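Run log // design_07
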């Protein structure tokens, strides 16, 4: 996995920046009822999406949480006084504290299915009855857009996707959450070019191909044969799922 403390400074510019953040925030808000009082953004990263969630609805009180100090520090500049360091598997908030919980580009990063199950369980725990949980799913699959780059990289080793939609839905169901919606949004500016993909390979962005692995250079050599080395291929399209926590007798 990438060192997100080191990645923090370049994270936004290398992942679509404000246009991608605008697309993500718009799709997330489309799945969250209005009015909603308190929202927790788990794995808020640099806060580039979180800030847009807060700005779009003045009545929404947004809290960001991230495990990585470098990311949380940047988010705190964008959202002063509302960002905390926290592990998604052990959130430092009481039960039923938020009206909505989001986790954008989190679940695919977790190492084991039990980690994903724990993160979903924590999001459900801090969600009030009647509230909505929104998360991205199938992130790795979104990057396979059927391009010539994807054809070259098809034989590469891959780790099992931890955020498969069916698995995430099963974990949510275990916590009593009900599927209620879905949406998609473009990863604006994230379409891969051969040259950029080669650089990402050599930086270790492909988790099963370390920079010092001979297979990394094998794939880099194949990418170098593709035409239009600097032309981005189509942007990925990311998937969102939303779940509602049913009301109970204690709900005011």
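design_07 sequence
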């Amino acid at each position: 996995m990438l060192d997100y403390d080191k990645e923090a400074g370049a994270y936004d510019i290398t992942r679509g920046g404000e246009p991608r953040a605008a697309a993500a925030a718009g799709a997330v808000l489309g799945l969250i009822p209005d009015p909603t009082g308190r929202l927790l953004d788990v794995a808020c990263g640099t806060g580039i999406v979180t800030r847009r969630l807060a700005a779009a609805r003045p009545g929404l009180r947004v809290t960001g949480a991230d495990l990585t100090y470098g990311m949380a520090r940047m988010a705190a500049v964008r959202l002063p006084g509302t960002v905390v360091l926290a592990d998604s598997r052990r959130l430092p908030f009481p039960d039923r504290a938020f009206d909505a919980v989001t986790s954008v580009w989190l679940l695919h990063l977790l190492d084991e299915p039990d980690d994903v199950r724990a993160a979903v369980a924590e999001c459900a725990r801090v969600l009030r009855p009647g509230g909505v949980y929104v998360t991205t799913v199938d992130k790795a699959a979104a990057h396979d857009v059927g391009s010539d780059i994807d054809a070259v990289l098809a034989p590469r080793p891959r780790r099992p996707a931890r955020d498969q939609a069916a698995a995430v839905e099963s974990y949510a169901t275990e916590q009593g959450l009900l599927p209620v919606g879905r949406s998609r949004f473009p990863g604006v500016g994230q379409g891969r070019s051969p040259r950029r993909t080669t650089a990402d390979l050599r930086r270790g962005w492909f988790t099963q191909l370390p920079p010092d692995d001979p297979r990394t250079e094998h794939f880099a050599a194949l990418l170098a044969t593709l035409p239009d080395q600097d032309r981005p291929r189509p942007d990925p399209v990311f998937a969102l799922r939303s779940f509602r926590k049913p009301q109970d007798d204690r709900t005011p």
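The chain is about 35% helix and 20% strand.
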